[in-house]
Amino acid sequence: MSKRILLLLTGDIVVAIFALLTAFLIRFGELPAPGDLTRTGTVRVIIFVFIMIFSSFFVEIYNLNRYLGGKESAARISISLLISLFILSCFYFMAPLFVYDGMVLIFSLFIFGTLQLAWHYLCYISSRFSGFSRRVLVLGTGPLAQQIGNLIAAGNQNYVLSGYVNCASEPLDVPPQNIVGNEERLYETVMRARAHKIVVSLSERRGIFPLQDVLSCKLSGVEVVDAPTFYEQVTGKLLIENITPSWFIFSHGFRVTALLRYFKRMIDLISAIVLLLLFLPFFPIIALLIKLDSQGPILFRQDRVGEKEKKFTLYKFRTMGVDAEKDTGAVWAKEHDPRVTRLGEILRKSRIDEIPQLFNILAGDMSLVGPRPERPEFVNKLKEIIPFYSERHCVKPGVTGWAQVQYPYGASVEDAIEKLRYDLYYIKNLSMAFDLMIVLETVKVVLFRRGGR
């Protein structure tokens, strides 16, 4: 998780607690006694803080791709407060012991919203000052260096480009005016540019990598990373074109332990059972609508490739006509696909067609979160074209996943490459906290109907 997100989250947690205490002071003229902060009091504080952070996350307050602006930030925070008020009101009726007085709640929400807006704006202003930005020096001038330079210039993170360092035999694909030195005097160039980080972006390192100078920079406190690692840090996906097998072996991550698999499986089983109990009453209604809309079975069965490239049968509510691929064979789904029925369009956009995959979770073929399982016909083709494509099968496929919430529905080889970047990033950084974040993102994707076809 980005350090900036952690900074915003930490500030919002402090602001939430401060808002609660201030509202208590305004309402009763005194701060809560120490006894009020024990047992139910502590639970009430935790509930309030969690709901405020969840609502903020839900309306994408922590979106770092761009600054939202004062008006949009205020609008999103207002929506977040309304969501928080609704959830906390539900808590009040269900468990009044864990919710504060109504006036305390209103005051605390108003104070939190005001301070949150000020805190986020302060963080944005401070990140614009050069003294708070992290200066990056790119070692190389070739196409890879150009890609990293463009990534920094996009401004998605708190980085500024200090310039490029030219190395012998490297092509010149970057603006000449941005070259600030060469590899022979790298240490002096780094000190002169006051760079915080060096990104090694050489097309070929053998024979030209300035080992001693880079080592001197690292021992002087300058962070040194390679281009794939920097790309991962900024974008949340992997630069698979410039990754070698040794990078997979020696990089941090890619450790899916037996204990992690066990906890993940337990959560999958509990989640699948709870969700099935919630959705089972609606199954007859959905089945009836499918039958009335078009002839054919209610459930659609299709072979998919799962963990360790084992095939399994995936279940979905049918959204296409019978024998939709009889004449064409296996083809990518596309926007406004004529094979999709009228009801199928609604089921796909709302992701209701995915609900039967909960049975796949119970059977152990899938997980709640993981890479999307692909069809065998496409897997065989993609393995020949895309490097490291098979590595996505080292974990169970998921009903939802990092690629699904970050990228629209894939319908081509190019889309498969882009989604693989996210899938490998997920496997590299797999954790229960990451899974929880993906589930929360999935809720937003479903409600706002993003990316379905």
Automatic annotation (TrEMBL):
Single GO MF annotation: undecaprenyl-phosphate glucose phosphotransferase activity
Keywords associated with the record: Membrane, Transferase, Transmembrane, Transmembrane helix
Membrane topology recorded in Swiss-Prot or TrEMBL: Multi-pass membrane protein
Main location: membrane
Family classification: Belongs to the bacterial sugar transferase family.
Residue ranges crossing the lipid bilayer per the database entry: 5-26, 46-65, 77-99, 105-125, 269-290
Top-rank lineage group of the source organism: Bacteria
GO biological process assignments: colanic acid biosynthetic process
A Gene Ontology term for the protein's cellular component: membrane
Limits of the Bacterial sugar transferase domain: 264-447
Intracellular or extracellular location(s): Membrane
InterPro entries: Bact_transf, EPS_sugar_tfrase, Sugar_tfrase_EpsB_2
NCBIfam families attached to this UniProt entry: EPS_sugtrans (TIGR03025), EpsB_2 (TIGR03013)
The protein's name in its UniProt record: Sugar transferase
